[in-house]
């Protein structure tokens, strides 16, 4: 059951009825995964066993009167089915014999597009050292097959080989859905031609391994394209799971998944399938998600998978932009055209005029003097009012164009919709460029000249975590993401018919940098197991400082090990395991963890042991606050304090790190840092182990919070709205969705388990369990909610029960994440209601 992704309007009420909220706001799904009891064949089960279980499920479902449509069946990496079923039947479904668990089938939408631009990947490639790996180490990814699960690949693109099939760069693949597929209930029309009519997958493939005008990370890999999107819209995660099983059958060497199902547990079926693929020898690299503005615990599946390499996004150090020049010296000013406005001209000179200063908060938000900007390009500071308002005021004052500069560090992209539509070009520039132009205008006249050219411009947020990159950790406090790579302002291949090249941003763009890096590592070290691949990448990654934090390292649960360092991983003379530490709750005191240092050379090596703290967050999940709070770290060996560890040639040594949560950090905060091992003979060989922990009692985080709507509710469905039921006033006939009770609840934090039990009102008799769900995600926003129907059927053990007419209450019980017993639960008991069939 998916959490709502739409913020609710304020509830309404009449004199007779309780407040109401729209059913559509909850976005509950009618598409569900049904996991069956046996493991899949990848974990040793027989195919006959998994198929017999599915046949038994179908028979039992018919016997129980369930009405559903079967969508897909899975045997290899996950054992179960995906089905379409009404929400009112979920209680029966979840309690059927042979059903291990049910999970909502989620959706993922294609990200918005930027206008196609000239090709440039060089600066992003340099950020990870891929250029060094190619030019100095001679690595190209030759012989490595990369599976790309995405929108397909435009195999006609010359940078991606220009053809499809044996002997081509894109050697094969499959289209699971067809061009017209838009997600949800749309009918898939699969075929063997995974051509990309959207662009996202082509962009991703170019980052992995383009070779032409653009050079990707591993320019000699071959591809298999698994198309799970149509030309527009969404896809569903049962389609994605099916593509994982196909990649396994095709024996690819690496899989890239620039796809994420947000706010996920590692038990998500796609994460489970990806984990099993890794255990079968195939590294899986996945984007961690683009929910950085939605707070903590927002990482997505499959990136949260325990064996998957989950990848965060860093902004590119440079961005390739069109530019205009300004007098007197022809300084180039790079700009981003605002969407929804006329394209900027490619020639022509105009005087500039400013409407405010770099300290004006509401620049051009009010009408400007008539004629004050006639024939001029206006310089306007961002802030307070919409772009359309600023540009329209400048247009009415006679401006021929508008340059809007940022009111915070860096560049921005945006749009200026509104009525009437603007008739002059509007572009955005950085805060520093705006201040430069403003200073020159303060000193005298400035003329700007539009050009048809492009150039590389430094990005003020380069090498910093992208603001959209999701926070970890997982709901069970496992450290995610694992590491990061460039994902903001990345230029790569795009379908030829759409211009050939484009700029996109997202963790979708960072994941293929790492997948390409894995391909180079596998070329350099053939046969390296997936676990060792992740260890080497994490050990050698380079953590980056947080913007505006005076050099303090950004959150470990935001950047993982740090920026991918491909030459560092290839040339590593040691590795340290485990490669990350998930410390869990600090309630029980300091956490002691033993680390094994493995020497990969034929001479003894000594490592200096140090600790680098990172910034902490907390305690609020939705409004993330940053704190300087360093954990205490002590290294010991054999019970004795140590500052160094010596490892024999080709051997190993152990050291114990004892980590104490920061005393200065408030409870419910998340802290982290890096245990650093520096080779005393070769100081360039630095290895790190990231760690993160939770301060205090994790189960102290409230789950059933009321929100502005006062949830939980007992509600009925009236038309298209849920209406809160006043106490002791509701009667239900149990005939159809409009005549059954619902419990509405907001989950402020992930829930390990959620149950709804039915009790007789007068004597407390337990009539059984109506709802039993596991691993629920937290709500995306603070006003979102879930709904849980009761259709009159319950279950006691394996026995189905029809609850007779009478008066009852529903008791909602939530077991908190990592909770173990009644002390870790929250409950809500509904008002009394009547069943009268």
UniProtKB/TrEMBL annotation:
<dbReference type="InterPro" id="IPR023828">
    <property type="entry name" value="Peptidase_S8_Ser-AS"/>
</dbReference>
<dbReference type="Pfam" id="PF06280">
    <property type="entry name" value="fn3_5"/>
</dbReference>
<dbReference type="InterPro" id="IPR022398">
    <property type="entry name" value="Peptidase_S8_His-AS"/>
</dbReference>
<dbReference type="InterPro" id="IPR000209">
    <property type="entry name" value="Peptidase_S8/S53_dom"/>
</dbReference>
<dbReference type="InterPro" id="IPR034187">
    <property type="entry name" value="Peptidases_S8_5"/>
</dbReference>
<dbReference type="InterPro" id="IPR010435">
    <property type="entry name" value="C5a/SBT2-like_Fn3"/>
</dbReference>
<keyword id="KW-0134">Cell wall</keyword>
<dbReference type="GO" id="GO:0016020">
    <property type="term" value="C:membrane"/>
</dbReference>
<feature type="active site" description="Charge relay system">
    <location>
        <position position="200"/>
    </location>
</feature>
<comment type="similarity">
    <text>Belongs to the peptidase S8 family.</text>
</comment>
<keyword id="KW-0720">Serine protease</keyword>
<keyword id="KW-0378">Hydrolase</keyword>
<feature type="active site" description="Charge relay system">
    <location>
        <position position="508"/>
    </location>
</feature>
<dbReference type="InterPro" id="IPR036852">
    <property type="entry name" value="Peptidase_S8/S53_dom_sf"/>
</dbReference>
<feature type="active site" description="Charge relay system">
    <location>
        <position position="150"/>
    </location>
</feature>
<dbReference type="InterPro" id="IPR050131">
    <property type="entry name" value="Peptidase_S8_subtilisin-like"/>
</dbReference>
<dbReference type="InterPro" id="IPR003137">
    <property type="entry name" value="PA_domain"/>
</dbReference>
<protein>
    <recommendedName>
        <fullName>Peptidase S8</fullName>
    </recommendedName>
</protein>
<feature type="domain" description="PA">
    <location>
        <begin position="363"/>
        <end position="436"/>
    </location>
</feature>
<keyword id="KW-0964">Secreted</keyword>
<feature type="domain" description="Peptidase S8/S53">
    <location>
        <begin position="141"/>
        <end position="546"/>
    </location>
</feature>
<dbReference type="GO" id="GO:0004252">
    <property type="term" value="F:serine-type endopeptidase activity"/>
</dbReference>
<feature type="domain" description="C5a peptidase/Subtilisin-like protease SBT2-like Fn3-like">
    <location>
        <begin position="591"/>
        <end position="692"/>
    </location>
</feature>
<dbReference type="InterPro" id="IPR046450">
    <property type="entry name" value="PA_dom_sf"/>
</dbReference>
<dbReference type="Pfam" id="PF02225">
    <property type="entry name" value="PA"/>
</dbReference>
<dbReference type="GO" id="GO:0006508">
    <property type="term" value="P:proteolysis"/>
</dbReference>
<dbReference type="Pfam" id="PF00082">
    <property type="entry name" value="Peptidase_S8"/>
</dbReference>
<dbReference type="InterPro" id="IPR015500">
    <property type="entry name" value="Peptidase_S8_subtilisin-rel"/>
</dbReference>
<keyword id="KW-0732">Signal</keyword>
<dbReference type="InterPro" id="IPR023827">
    <property type="entry name" value="Peptidase_S8_Asp-AS"/>
</dbReference>
<keyword id="KW-0645">Protease</keyword>
């Amino acid at each position: 059951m998916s959490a709502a992704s739409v913020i609710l309007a304020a509830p309404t009420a009449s004199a007779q009825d309780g407040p109401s909220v729209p059913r559509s706001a909850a976005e509950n799904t009618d598409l569900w995964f049904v996991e069956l009891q046996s493991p899949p064949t990848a974990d040793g089960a027989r195919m006959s066993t998994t198929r017999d279980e599915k046949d038994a499920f179908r028979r039992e479902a018919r016997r129980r009167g369930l009405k559903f449509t079967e969508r897909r069946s899975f045997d290899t990496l996950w054992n179960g089915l995906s089905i379409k079923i009404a929400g009112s039947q979920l209680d029966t479904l979840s309690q059927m014999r042979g059903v291990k668990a049910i999970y909502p089938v989620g959706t993922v939408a294609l990200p918005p597009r930027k206008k196609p631009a000239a090709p440039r990947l060089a600066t992003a490639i340099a950020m990870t050292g891929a250029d060094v790996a190619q030019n100095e180490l001679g690595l190209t990814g030759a012989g490595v097959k990369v599976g790309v699960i995405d929108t397909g690949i435009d195999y006609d693109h010359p940078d991606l080989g220009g053809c499809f099939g044996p002997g081509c760069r894109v050697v094969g693949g499959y289209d699971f859905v067809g061009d017209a597929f838009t997600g949800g209930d749309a009918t898939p029309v699969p075929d063997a031609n995974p051509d990309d009519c959207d662009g996202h997958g082509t962009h991703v493939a170019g980052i992995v391994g383009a070779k032409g005008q653009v050079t990707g990370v591993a320019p000699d890999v071959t591809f298999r394209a698994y198309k799970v999107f149509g030309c527009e819209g969404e896809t569903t995660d049962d389609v994605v799971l099916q593509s994982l099983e196909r990649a396994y059958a095709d024996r690819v060497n690496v899989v890239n998944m620039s796809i994420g199902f947000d706010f996920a547990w590692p038990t998500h079926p796609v994460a489970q399938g990806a984990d099993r693929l890794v255990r079968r020898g195939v590294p899986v690299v996945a984007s961690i998600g683009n929910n950085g503005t939605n707070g903590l615990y927002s990482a997505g599946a499959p990136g949260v998978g325990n064996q998957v390499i989950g990848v965060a996004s860093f902004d590119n150090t440079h961005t390739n932009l069109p530019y205009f020049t300004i007098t007197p010296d022809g300084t180039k000013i790079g700009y981003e055209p605002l969407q929804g406005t006329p394209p900027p001209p490619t020639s022509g000179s105009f005087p500039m005029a400013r409407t405010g200063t770099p300290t004006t908060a509401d620049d051009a938000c009010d009408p400007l003097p008539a004629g004050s900007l006639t024939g001029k390009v206006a310089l306007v500071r961002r802030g307070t009012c919409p772009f359309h308002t600023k540009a329209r005021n400048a247009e009415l004052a006679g401006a021929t164009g508008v340059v809007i500069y940022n009111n915070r560090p860096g560049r921005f992209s945006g749009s200026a919709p509104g009525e009437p539509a603007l008739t002059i070009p509007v572009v955005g520039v950085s805060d520093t460029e705006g201040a430069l132009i403003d200073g020159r205008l303060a000193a005298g006249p400035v003329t700007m000249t539009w050009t048809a050219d492009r150039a590389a411009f430094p990005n003020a947020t380069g090498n910093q975590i992208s603001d959209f990159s999701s926070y970890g950790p997982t709901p069970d406090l496992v450290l995610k993401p694992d590491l990061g790579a460039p994902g903001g302002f990345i230029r790569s291949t795009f379908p030829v018919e759409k211009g050939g090249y484009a700029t996109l941003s997202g963790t979708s763009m960072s994941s293929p940098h790492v997948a390409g890096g894995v391909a180079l590592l596998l070329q350099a070290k053939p046969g390296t197991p997936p676990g060792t691949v992740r260890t080497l990448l994490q050990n050698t990654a380079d953590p980056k400082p947080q913007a505006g934090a005076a050099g303090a390292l950004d959150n470990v649960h935001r950047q993982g090990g740090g920026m991918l360092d491909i030459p560092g991983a290839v040339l590593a003379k040691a590795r340290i395991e485990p490669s990350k530490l998930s410390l869990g709750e600090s309630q029980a005191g300091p956490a002691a963890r033993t680390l094994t240092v493995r020497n990969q050379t034929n001479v003894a090596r000594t490592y200096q042991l140090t600790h680098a703290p990172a910034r902490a967050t907390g305690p609020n999940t939705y409004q993330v606050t940053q704190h300087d709070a360093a954990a205490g770290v002590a290294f010991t060996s054999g019970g004795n304090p140590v500052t160094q560890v010596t490892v024999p040639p080709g051997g190993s040594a152990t050291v114990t790190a004892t980590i104490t949560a920061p005393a200065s950090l408030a409870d419910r905060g998340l802290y982290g840092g890096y245990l650093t091992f520096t080779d005393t003979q070769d100081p360039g060989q630095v290895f790190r182990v990231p760690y993160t922990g939770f301060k205090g009692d994790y189960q102290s985080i409230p789950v059933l919070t009321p929100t502005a709507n006062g949830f939980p509710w007992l509600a009925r469905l009236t038309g298209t709205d849920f209406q809160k039921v006043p106490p002791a006033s509701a009667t239900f006939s149990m005939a159809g969705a409009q005549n059954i009770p619902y419990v509405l609840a907001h989950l402020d934090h992930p829930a390990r388990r959620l149950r709804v039990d039915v009790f007789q009102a007068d004597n407390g008799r337990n009539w059984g369990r109506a709802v039993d769900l596991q691993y629920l995600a937290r709500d995306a926003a603070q006003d979102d909610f879930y709904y849980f129907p009761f259709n009159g059927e319950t279950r006691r053990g394996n026995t189905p029960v029809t609850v007779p007419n009478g008066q009852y209450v529903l008791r909602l019980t939530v077991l908190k994440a990592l909770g173990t017993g009644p002390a870790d639960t929250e409950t809500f008991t509904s008002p009394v209601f009547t069943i009268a069939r």
